């Protein structure tokens, strides 16, 4: 496989942006913990693709399940008739979800999961005769995909400002990272409760009776790996409960074992009313997402009030047989290989390796949780992002795939990672940082 001559011609700017076009890095194949590029070089996957290939690459059981499915039933027109697969999968998902989130709506991506969850929130209140609850609260510096709902509740400028005003009736919590108080800590200072009071500010400002939902990434990924200080999520939950506001966790990144439990909600001990997921659901190999909702929300959304009876929501590819087959084989893999708890087992080892990078040139903060790591670098004068990009490029040349968000280097290896891979990741990254 050679690189096509005019690559700009057929890629959207965000799928192959500056980070890619600077020096195209083309991958030819993948297996287990490794990619291989078109020149045959082996690249250790430090990011599970884009936080998604949690079971590793090209796992034979998943490959076989998808191949078998496409040859057996390639598509089911599920508005008229279905296949059993989405129902079988729903039972499996119910078994690992935090109670009482025991219903799912399928989507095809994280962005669709977010927009679907926001729509469900509005329809839920309307079905209960509270149609005035239309306001959605996100957080500054959050990423919720690229749909109109997601960019409206999100807060990253490059994701927002080119695309008009977004949804009406949206407001944002202030963001929570405070490097001054956080720098190099293992764990975080306990100012979560205080930070969460910002939701009370918005409740007072807008009147609780107009607010439908709050959406939050338990750990924000694309905004720079921002961890919730202890007490933050609990307090947000309490405030939502007090005012009848639905709480949505966007677990597109944190779901499916990334933090040592199937979902971050379980690890943090805070149960939202809805959970958006994608990525790890199929270990990235077939696009699929799912929104988890409680029985109460499901009932209201499906049949509750008269006004909801003619409600329509669904995609051509909802519960696609290939995606369901991939998800079922992925769940088998997670369960049989103990991958849901792997991040917890390796957390201390991962933390030691990551924090050994303290003191390397330009490192101003290090953050970690489960099998997530972030190394934040001081921005170069007048060129924010340049240093991060250098790390991405040099690490790739050494044979390591990292992700950057600005000047933060993010790591999230497949959950099949072993100690020797962790050693390799930090030794390659350490050498790159030494050379900056
Ligand atoms: N929410 C979060 C928290 C994400 O990290 C992402 C993707 N990185 C999305 C939503 C959007 O997912 P997708 O790219 O599959 O649409």
UniProtKB/TrEMBL annotation:
UniProt similarity note: Belongs to the class-III pyridoxal-phosphate-dependent aminotransferase family.
EC number(s) from the headed UniProt entry: 2.6.1.18
Descriptive protein name: Omega amino acid--pyruvate aminotransferase
Keyword field: Aminotransferase, Pyridoxal phosphate, Pyruvate, Transferase
Keyword Cell wall biogenesis/degradation: no
Family matches, as Pfam families: Aminotran_3
Cofactor(s) essential for the protein: pyridoxal 5'-phosphate
Enzyme class: transferase
One GO process term, biological-process aspect: biotin biosynthetic process
Database matches in SUPFAM superfamilies: PLP-dependent transferases (SSF53383)
GO molecular function, one term: beta-alanine:pyruvate transaminase activity
């Amino acid at each position: 496989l050679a690189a096509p001559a005019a690559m700009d011609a057929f890629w959207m700017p965000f799928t192959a942006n500056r980070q890619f076009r600077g020096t195209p890095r083309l991958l030819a194949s993948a297996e287990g913990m490794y990619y291989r590029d078109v020149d045959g070089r082996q690249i250790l996957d430090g990011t599970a693709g884009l936080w998604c290939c949690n079971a590793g690459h090209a796992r034979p059981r998943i490959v076989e399940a998808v191949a078998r499915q496409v040859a057996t039933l390639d598509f089911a027109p599920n508005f008229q008739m279905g296949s059993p697969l989405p129902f079988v999968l729903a039972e499996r998902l119910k078994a690992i979800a935090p109670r009482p989130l025991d219903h799912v709506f399928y989507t095809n991506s994280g962005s669709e999961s977010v927009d679907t969850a926001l729509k469900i929130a509005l329809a839920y209140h309307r079905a209960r005769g509270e149609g005035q609850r239309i306001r959605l609260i996100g957080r500054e510096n959050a990423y919720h995909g690229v749909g109109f709902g997601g960019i409206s509740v999100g807060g990253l400028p490059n994701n927002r400002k080119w695309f008009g005003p977004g949804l009406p009736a949206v407001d944002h919590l202030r963001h929570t990272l405070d490097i001054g108080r956080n720098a190099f800590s293992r764990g975080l200072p306990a100012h979560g409760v205080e930070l969460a009071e910002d939701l009370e500010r918005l409740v007072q400002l807008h009147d609780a009776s107009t607010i439908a939902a709050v959406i939050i990434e338990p750990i924000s990924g694309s905004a720079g790996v921002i961890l919730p200080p202890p007490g933050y999520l609990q307090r947000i939950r309490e405030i939502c409960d007090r005012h009848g506001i639905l709480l949505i966790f966007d677990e597109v990144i944190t779901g499916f074992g990334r933090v040592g439990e199937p979902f971050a909600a379980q690890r943090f001990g805070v149960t939202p009313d809805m959970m958006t997921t994608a990525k790890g659901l199929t270990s990235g190999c077939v696009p699929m997402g799912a929104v988890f909702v409680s029985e109460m929300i499901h009932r209201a959304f499906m049949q509750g009030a008269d006004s909801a009876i003619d409600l329509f929501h669904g995609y051509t590819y909802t519960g696609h047989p290939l995606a369901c087959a991939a998800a079922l084989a992925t769940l088998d893999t997670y369960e049989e290989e103990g991958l849901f708890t792997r991040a917890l087992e390796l957390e201390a080892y991962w933390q030691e390796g990551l924090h050994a990078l303290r003191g390397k040139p330009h490192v101003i903060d290090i953050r970690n949780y489960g099998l997530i790591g972030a190394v934040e670098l001081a921005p170069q004068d007048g060129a924010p992002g340049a240093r991060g990009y250098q790390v991405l490029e040099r690490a790739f040349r050494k044979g390591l795939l990292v992700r950057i968000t600005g000047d933060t280097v993010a790591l999230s290896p497949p959950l099949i990672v072993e100690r020797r891979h962790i050693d390799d990741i930090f030794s390659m990254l350490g050498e790159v940082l030494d050379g900056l």
